[in-house]
Amino acid sequence: MNSRHLQYLNIALAAFLGIAIFTSTDEPEGQPSYRPDKDIPQVVKPVDLNREFDFAGELLPMDNFDVRERLDRELLVNTYWHSSTLLNLKNAYKFFPMIEQKLAEAGIPEDFKYLAVAESSLRNVVSPAGARGLWQIMSATAREHGLEVSNEVDERYHYEKATEAACKVLKQYHRSFGTWTMAAAAYNAGYGNIKDEIETQRAETYYDLNLNAETARYIFRLVAIKEILSRPDEFGFYLEDEDGYPPLDDYEPIVVSETINNLGDFALEQGTTYRMLKVYNPWLLDSRLTVRPGQEYEIRVPK
């Protein structure tokens, strides 16, 4: 046997031994070996769609395959978007009691608390279009419904006042379109856009409309959020009450009728810090607060 043949034989033998070592395992044939120090076990399965789903008491037409698939997508996205969903569950402890009260006072179905989750993940965020706050309200809409928007004050960040303004918008849309589902869609897309699409497409329900990607997913996303947040343990999310974030209800209201030149000084005078003053009053944008003659503001000071 010449040297070249011997070289080929050695290569073949090494390859055979490598394959034999790689494939040897104590696990049953066809089953992957589990490495508890390296692998993360998961249970990933579809969500059961074989039942009724509703938003604000209005049933989804689950006999429509298109509706089923669109809902399935949002249920899966939100079920397996772990960090975001868990934060939403924690924030719900902070904001849902207040939102539920405001919705009840306005005669709006409780399911609309999930709209705030879909809009902002229950955070005072800013959209690329300039919508702000828990309810993602544009400045023109805010002013139309009595919210102050200025360089120093933006009441879209005032949790209660912004919720009341959102309720006014939703009631207006419900009167115009006749269903809560369509009112929610209009909240996302805008009244004029939904009205035009209904007329152009000759559609009778939200589910008949062919809309932009965000609004086409919107109701299904609301339903998915509702399903998960209303019974999280069924979707693999386990929280105790102490895991939730506490409501911002432990404060002393201070009525201010004169300009505050420095909110840091004001905070110290009230026995708190500038940071905590902004946490309890996120609608205060600047380091000062100008108060015009005859005007008053209620500032919350944590106890």
From TrEMBL:
Question: What region holds the Transglycosylase SLT domain?
Answer: 102-206
An example Pfam family from this entry, by short name, is SLT
- Give the domain of life: Bacteria
Q: Where are the transmembrane segments?
A: none
What family does this chain come from, according to its entry? Belongs to the transglycosylase Slt family.
Q: This chain belongs to which protein, by name? A: Murein transglycosylase
The organism encoding this protein is Phaeodactylibacter xiamenensis
